[in-house]
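Re: beginner question about structure tokens

> Can someone show what the tokenized structure looks like for a real chain? I only ever see the sequence side.

Sure, here's an example I had lying around. Input first:
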Amino acid sequence: MSYSNRSLETMKLEYDGTVAIVTLSRPDAMNAMNNQFFADFQIILSELEQDEQPARALLITAEGKGFCAGADLKDQGGEMPPDFAQTLKKNYHPLILGLKNLPIPTIVAVNGAAAGAGMSLVCACDIAIAEKQAYFLQAFVNIALIPDAGSTYFLPRMVGRARAASMMMFGEKLSADQAVDYGIISKVVEPGELLTEGMVLARKLATMSTQALFAIRKLLDSSENNTLEQQLECEAVAQQKAGHSGDFMEGVMAFLEKRVANFKGK
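And the corresponding structure tokens:
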């Protein structure tokens, strides 16, 4: 299989060395999620899951003034009431779970509005940064729906129940600066610096042990529901596996030889 840059209907995939860059490219629709969006994203996720593909980190960003407006309501068809449960299970759930199971670290660079499931997409990534003018919105209640695509899982764990309830029940915008304070994103950058900063982070993560980073993601996700004893056991199991990896041996040798480690993710 050839791993090269490609332009799909709703997004682009580019390789910059060991960094894969996905750019959402429906700017006229605020990069809203339609059926083609999900099909394109699954193509990309399937490619990035392959052992032989070159990327060791994924950076997601978007064209236009908005990052992602969430579901494309124009793509719902004429059925009323819509079969939302089937749509979620078919499209949204594989997207969110696919990101969480991707064996390389994920960084999202938010250039504008991240609303509805677009905000869920942000929350599903490991690291999130945003431009100063970006904002985040749990828009569902404004059309009498409930948050989905993982929002009710991610947000209470990120910001606490009180703040999550306020965001979801009032459906009001949260600025990038507030999103940092809430713990949704890690950094706000000035206009024009977003992609540069995102690439700095992606390149740094791409030099690290991807198997260790994947294990850290899984441990962080499990910690919210585990007792201390259960989490200690999860750490022991993960550390045993990490300690038998080639990356661990490389890390020790690099430390002893006072050189930069050359991790392979194995």
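Each token stands for a local structural state, so reading them left to right follows the chain. The longest helix spans residues 84-101.
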